[in-house]
């Protein structure tokens, strides 16, 4: 297992993208806190866990308008749009409110996530954590910052203390119960808090030892994966391969916890197969 590495990106583009994404994240933080607990309704799609609110729509429209004006040649993909694809060199991916059910209920645990992505993964990632009044930002080979303060993980040894995970779009993931039981036996707490983005961000910040996500969309995690990679976390798929945006499961972990948590995850998947 190795820590994620990336190709360099044009410094001018990165600087402008960071500035614009930071402004959008600040706007989103204000809107999310002002509209918390105002209700919503389930998305009529396939998942009973997806919700749609006016806040989602407002932030999506605002984000699209600003990004289209500032970067007219770069496509923008939002939650609910078609999966990112095509031949564009770069793409923006945004989740206006990750943790919409929490936001709808007034539970203070949701985020705005925005990332500029190329073929090698996130170039820029910005996450607004409105209830903690924090903006987390990262850019390829420039590190991660929380409200402007640099964040860097140190090598962690021994057993992990807290691991985050989340449901899939249809419920518990295969082997999830076994994974939680194995972690508990080892003295590790597993938390399911309702935001994939913030689950990964907790690892980048050093609050959680690891985050395991069995199912997700690119806009759920791209911004937070940028934070994690630049803070020094390990980013792996379920097979233990390091990759920039894994398509086959996602493990983000502090370096000293990665091997242990990966073993728990793989064992749980095998037991369920």
From TrEMBL:
Cofactor(s), names only, from the UniProt record: Mg(2+)
MF-aspect GO terms: inositol monophosphate 1-phosphatase activity; metal ion binding
UniProt keyword Magnesium present: yes
Positions that bind Mg(2+) 2: 220
Keyword Transferase attributed: no
Signal peptide: none
Keywords: Magnesium, Metal-binding
Coiled coil: none
PANTHER family, sorted: INOSITOL MONOPHOSPHATASE, INOSITOL-1-MONOPHOSPHATASE-RELATED
Annotated protein name in UniProt: Myo-inositol-1(Or 4)-monophosphatase
Species of origin: Lentzea fradiae
Lineage, top ranks: Bacteria, Bacillati, Actinomycetota, Actinomycetes, Pseudonocardiales
């Amino acid at each position: 297992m190795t820590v994620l590495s990336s190709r360099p990106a044009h410094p001018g583009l990165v600087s402008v993208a960071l500035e614009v994404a930071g402004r959008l994240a600040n706007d989103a933080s204000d809107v999310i806190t002002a509209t918390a607990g105002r209700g919503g309704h389930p998305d009529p799609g396939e998942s009973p866990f997806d919700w749609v609110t006016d806040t989602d729509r407002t932030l999506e429209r605002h984000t699209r308008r600003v990004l289209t004006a500032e970067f007219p040649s770069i496509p923008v993909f939002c939650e609910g749009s078609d999966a990112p694809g095509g031949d564009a060199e770069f793409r923006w991916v945004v989740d206006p409110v990750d943790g919409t059910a929490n936001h709808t209920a007034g539970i203070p645990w949701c985020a705005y996530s925005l990332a500029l992505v190329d073929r090698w993964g996130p170039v820029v990632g910005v996450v607004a954590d409105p209830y903690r009044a924090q903006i987390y930002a990262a850019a390829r080979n420039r590190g991660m910052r929380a409200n402007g303060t640099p964040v860097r993980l140190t090598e962690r040894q021994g057993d992990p203390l807290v691991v985050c995970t989340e449901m899939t779009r249809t419920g518990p993931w295969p082997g999830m119960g076994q994974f939680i039981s194995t972690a508990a036996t080892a003295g590790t707490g597993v938390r399911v808090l309702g935001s994939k983005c913030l689950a990964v961000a907790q690892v980048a910040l050093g609050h959680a030892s690891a985050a395991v996500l069995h199912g997700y969309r690119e806009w759920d995690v791209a911004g937070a994966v940028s934070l994690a990679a630049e803070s020094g976390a390990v980013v792996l798929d379920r097979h233990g391969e390091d990759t920039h945006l894994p398509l086959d499961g996602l493990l983000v972990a502090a370096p000293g916890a990665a091997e242990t948590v990966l073993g728990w995850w793989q064992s749980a998947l095998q037991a369920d197969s």
